[in-house]
Design a protein that fits this description.
The complex is a heterodimer of chains A (124) and B (884).
Chain A: E1 8-10, H1 20-36, E2 40-41, H2 42-52, E3 57-59, H3 61-74, E4 77-83, E5 89-95, H4 97-122
Chain B: H1 2-15, H2 17-41, H3 46-57, H4 60-70, H5 74-92, H6 94-123, E1 134-142, E2 147-150, H7 155-164, E3 168-174, E4 178-184, E5 187-196, H8 200-204, E6 210-211, E7 226-229, H9 231-236, E8 248-251, E9 254-261, E10 274-277, E11 291-297, H10 303-314, E12 330-337, H11 338-343, H12 347-378, H13 380-388, H14 393-429, H15 444-468, H16 474-479, H17 486-521, E13 532-537, H18 547-562, E14 567-573, E15 583-587, E16 597-605, H19 609-613, E17 617-620, E18 634-638, H20 639-646, E19 655-656, E20 660-666, E21 686-690, H21 696-705, E22 709-714, H22 721-732, E23 738-743, H23 744-751, H24 753-787, H25 789-797, H26 802-831, H27 847-873, H28 877-882
Parallel strand pairs in B: 5-10, 7-9, 16-21, 18-20
Antiparallel strand pairs in B: 1-2, 1-11, 1-12, 3-11, 4-5, 4-8, 6-9, 7-10, 8-9, 13-22, 13-23, 14-22, 15-16, 17-20, 18-21, 19-20
Helix pairs in contact in B: 2-3, 2-4, 5-14, 6-12, 6-14, 6-15, 7-10, 12-15, 12-17, 12-24, 14-15, 17-24, 17-26, 17-27, 18-22, 24-26, 24-27, 26-27
The chains are: A alpha+beta (124), B alpha+beta (884).
């Protein structure tokens, strides 16, 4: 499998230190968003993010799993074991009530930020 | 809800680690599986699909580790697993653990013991209410012979202090306790009587549990005779009789009325069995500075007011003894906290011991740093493996620190035991009432100190190795079997040199103290100290204020003692050689020296005294029974007396104090001077007076302070001699109990208690330092042998002889040690000058002492180097080379 050069790889903090905080928030939001439409396992989340960002973000397991576990500990998601589409046993995640609230809050925040950034860039 | 989820995950991570781990493992594996499935569906071959999946996952273990690090409670969890791992490591290396544990237990234990002394003597507050309002008075003398210390006070000072210093409640007591005989019913016993003024117990804040404190009337000169009992005397002698108050007891053969009983836990600076009123005045005892004063600041008064009032009243005195030797001296007085006043004299010794204990700790740290450094080096491969498995540098460091801390805590726990045993042994060495505190507890402050010291030690000995191994190069470490860094070797040599230097200082210091003690103990005795048995008894007794009764007692008791089988001679003397001796002021009466004055030591003796002690008579005669109360007053003087007053010419036939004739001259004996103490034992001008010629008032006064000695000489010490002596004394007076039996060696030891203590403590620490240094050198060389086994094998295969290799390896250990010896000698030359005041008969720069230390260290170094190198002889070159 080869990736196009414009794709970002999220959470490779060892390589790029600067955007970590921004990407941290981004990653949480993307995971929450990907779960908004239903429960998914880790790979499902990863592929869903790839899909909804038009292939811009590829979330590697080294970033995905710590984030998933952290979010579960925060109480935003809950997990259970189920069978995958190919009959593999997989761990599924779904949003909790708190998770939905978090998604709403995060979306609003991101809306504001992206609007502000867009305004800033348009200004001459 | 989120909080609840957090708590739940925290507990799960902590308690069900296994389940969480299994869960994580399965999740990551199923993820990998699904990636492979995905790749297969995309049309890749099996192998290619697996490879790509693994590439995307980026290492199963690393992913898991990343999740673990993010987990809640991960810090706590990994610390506990580090601890478990650490304990396993320590169990796996029992030799290392034992060495470190013992080193720590001994070195921290020494610190625990010494610190508990510091704590009890200098830090703990006095066991009285509001100790900060208690004090004593220091006399500050400015000028040529400047001093600032606690003086005892005389009767005039006491009366002025009592009457003219309203800011204080003041009290005085006798300087020490007086041994007196107590007769209660059928019981006749020797007890310690603390003579105190009224308000003494109020100053201490003590209230009797029965009865009351002394009244002002009872403290008046010739006032009513009253007594306050300590709790233990009340219980042991009087059966805790609740009706004791108001009852008479027979003390000094006089009735004293019991007016109070002190509480069980009450302690006083005197720690006496019972207390009687001091009845101090300007007469008798009060003429000299024979009282010890304590003060308590009154409510609403300040120390400044008190000091001003003390200075005003004491500086107005007509005759000020402070100016007797030094008329131009500028004298002032100031109050200091009682704690300071009581312990100031011991402070330098205690602090010196604390410094020595600190040295021990540093030496131990150097050893342990060397040992842990070597151990870390050996674990380079383990470190590299853990780094490869995804551990961070911080995690590796933390593991080492936790192991060091575990070691320190284990050692610290044992050190409390060591400290406890050391203190107990120390107390067995000490005579009663030697320390101004009743107990030296291992209290919470000592425990905290031990904990802090242990942790500090672990930081100190862990720091160097941690810094030295911070840059472990992963690839080279995996490739090589060991890392024998040149830098680390140099570091270890430096550590050895440092600890040997400290050891040299301790050895030189304790060597000087030992030489001083030997000097004092082997002073030319001037008498035959073998075969003498001494019985002391108190004659502070109203019956013996009468000189006739006193003479009768001495005659009858010495006669009875001469009848004891095996006894060759018997006598009585107020003081014996080695003892603290009373003194007097005399005036020469004839010849060109007429009018000369001077202080001399003063001892009354019976005629047999000089023969019994076998003191050589140098001129004239000794006393006979003819020297009675009504005959010519005569004295015998010693050689120092003749030298000082008559320029060494024969003093026999000269007169002093108008009509007292010198009839003989005897040899000098060492004694503990009260006149002009420059050493704990010295010879000094002394006059001997016939006991039969001492008047009643003087006898009464002398026997308050001093207990006379009955001495017998035996050819070979008979069994039951002391029982026979007591029986002989009882024949003359059935109500005269002995206060103790001593040999001359006992008296010598009693006088030199402080010096023996110093030698015992500093000597023990120097020995410990020497042991630790030996262990350090041994470990250094042993590790070099182990590290260089392969190199040694090659050398021997190439034709080196065993002795050549031993020399090559051992050389560096010896070199490091010798550097330390040189450094230590230099340092001690500078630092030990402070010891000058406690050295007698030996200088600070004593060549033979230094030489002895150097030889000792050299021998120990050779031994510690040679023992581990003997293993070289057993190295088989063929096998060593095959091992690779």
């Amino acid at each position: 499998m080869d990736y196009d050069s414009y794709r970002f790889s999220i959470g490779e903090s060892r390589l790029s230190e600067e955007p970590t905080t921004l990407l941290q928030g981004t990653l949480d939001l993307l995971i929450l968003k990907s779960l908004a439409t239903g429960e998914r396992h880790g790979l499902g989340i990863s592929r869903r993010i790839q899909q909804i960002t038009g292939g811009t973000f590829l979330v590697k397991p080294g970033s995905l799993f710590p984030a998933l576990h952290r979010m579960e500990e925060e109480g935003w998601t809950s997990s259970f074991w189920g069978d995958s589409e190919n009959n593999r046993r997989a761990k599924y995640y779904r949003l909790t009530k708190a998770g939905r609230k978090q998604l709403e809050a995060e979306s609003k925040r991101w809306g504001r930020i992206s609007w502000a950034i867009a305004q800033a860039l348009e200004a001459s | 809800m989120p909080l609840f989820a957090k708590a739940r995950s925290f507990l799960r991570n902590l308690l069900f680690t296994g389940r969480a781990e299994e869960d994580l493992d399965q999740e990551v594996r199923s993820h990998l599986q699904m990636l492979i499935d995905e790749n297969l569906r995309a049309g890749l071959g099996r192998e290619e699909a697996e490879r790509a999946a693994r590439l995307e996952l980026g290492g199963t273990e690393q992913v898991k580790e990343q999740v673990r690090e993010k987990r809640l409670g991960t810090g706590l969890h990994s610390v506990s697993s580090d601890c478990r791992f650490g304990l396993r490591q320590l169990r796996k290396n029992p030799g290392f653990t034992l060495t470190v544990g013992l080193t720590l237990a001994l070195s921290v234990g020494a610190n625990t013991a010494i610190f508990s002394l510091v704590n009890a003597l200098l830090l703990k507050s006095l066991p009285y209410p509001h100790p900060e309002r208690m004090g004593t008075i220091y006399t500050r003398i400015a000028g040529s012979a400047a001093s600032d210390k606690r003086h005892n006070v005389n009767g005039e000072q006491w009366e002025l202090l009592r009457d003219n210093v309203p800011a204080l409640t003041s009290a005085v007591s006798s300087v020490g306790t007086t041994g007196v005989n107590l007769k209660g019913g059928s019981h006749v016993g020797y007890v310690h009587d603390g003579r105190i003024s009224a308000h003494y117990l109020e100053v201490l804040g003590l209230q009797p549990i029965l009865g009351r404190n002394f009244s002002a009337d009872e403290d008046r000169a010739h006032g009513p005779k009253a007594a306050i009992l300590s709790y233990s005397l009340w219980r042991n002698v009087f059966g805790a009789d609740p009706g004791i108050v108001g009852q008479p007891i027979l003390l000094r053969s006089e009735p004293y009325t019991v007016v109070g009983v002190l509480p069980q836990d009450a302690t006083t600076p005197l720690n006496a069995d019972l207390y009687t009123p001091l009845q101090a005045s300007r007469e008798g005892e009060g003429r000299g500075t024979n009282f010890s004063c304590i003060i308590r600041l009154r409510h609403a008064a300040t120390w400044e007011e008190a000091d001003a009032q003390i200075n005003r009243t004491w500086l107005s005195r007509a005759g000020r003894y402070e100016l007797a030797d030094n008329p131009s001296a500028k004298v002032s007085y100031h109050s200091v906290p009682l704690k300071k006043g009581q312990t100031d004299s011991l402070r330098p010794q205690v602090l010196a011991l604390m410094v020595a204990a600190g040295f021990i700790l540093l030496i131990a740290c150097a050893n342990l740093a060397g040992l842990t450094l070597v151990r870390m080096m050996r674990r380079t491969r383990e470190v590299a493996t853990r780094l490869a498995l995804g551990a961070s540098g911080w995690q590796i460091q933390r593991q080492f620190w936790i192991e060091n801390l575990l070691l320190a805590l284990i050692g610290g726990a044992f050190s409390v035991g060591v400290g406890f045993v050391a203190l107990r042994e120390l107390f067995l060495l000490l005579p009663e009432h030697f320390l101004p505190v009743t107990s030296v507890p291992l209290d919470s402050r000592v425990m905290l100190f031990t904990l802090v010291i242990s942790v500090l030690t672990s930081v100190l000995f862990g720091m160097l190795p941690a810094l030295a191994t911070r840059r472990v190069d992963l690839r080279s470490s995996m490739a090589h079997r060991t890392v024998a860094g040149v830098g680390s070797l140099r570091l270890r040599h430096g550590l050895i040199a440092g600890e040997v230097a400290l050891t040299v200082m301790l050895l030189v210091g304790s060597g000087l103290l030992i030489r001083s003690l030997i000097h004092l103990e082997t002073l030319p005795p001037g008498f035959n100290r073998n075969g003498v048995m001494v019985e002391k008894a108190s004659l502070d007794d109203v019956r013996y204020h009468d000189p006739a009764a006193f003479r009768k007692l001495l005659d009858e008791s010495t006669a009875a003692m001469r009848q004891i089988p095996g006894v060759e001679n018997a006598a009585v003397g107020l003081n014996l050689p080695y003892e603290f001796t009373g003194n007097d002021w005399i005036t020469l009466s004839d010849g060109k020296e007429a009018g000369h004055q001077g202080g001399v030591d003063w001892v009354y003796v019976t005629p047999g005294y000089f023969d019994t002690l076998e003191m050589p008579l140098l001129a004239g005669r000794v006393f006979t029974d003819a020297d009675g109360p009504n005959s010519q007053h005569v004295i015998v003087v010693n050689q120092s007396f003749a030298r000082k007053f008559y320029g060494g010419t024969n003093p026999v036939g000269r007169y002093v104090d108008k009509d007292t004739l010198i009839v003989g001259e005897v040899a000098d004996v060492p004694l503990s001077s009260g006149l002009d103490p420059v050493a704990p034992l010295q010879t000094e001008e002394t006059m001997y007076v016939p006991a039969a010629q001492v008047g009643g008032p003087l006898l009464a006064l002398l026997h308050v302070w001093l207990q006379p000695n009955w001495i017998v000489r035996t050819a070979d010490r008979a069994e039951g001699l002391t029982v026979e002596m007591q029986r002989a004394l009882e024949k003359a007076d059935p109500d005269l109990p002995a206060s103790g039996f001593y040999t001359m060696a006992d008296l010598l030891a009693r006088t030199l208690t402080m010096q023996r203590m110093e030698v015992a403590l500093l000597g023990a620490m120097a020995a410990l330092a020497l042991l630790l240094s030996a262990v350090g050198i041994f470990a250094l060389v042993a590790n070099m042998v182990a590290e260089r086994t392969r190199e040694i094998g090659i050398r021997m295969a190439l034709g080196s002889s065993v002795s050549q290799v031993i020399f090559e390896i051992g050389r560096s250990g010896v070199a490091a040690s010798l550097c330390g010896v040189l450094l230590g000698l230099l340092l001690s030359a500078g630092a030990l000058r402070v010891m000058r005041s406690v050295l007698y008969g030996v200088g600070v720069y004593d060549v033979s002492n230094s030489l002895f230390v150097v030889i000792t260290l050299f021998a120990v170094t050779l031994l510690a180097t040679l023992l581990p190198t003997l293993r070289i002889a057993r190295i088989d070159p063929a096998r060593t080379l095959r091992e690779e």
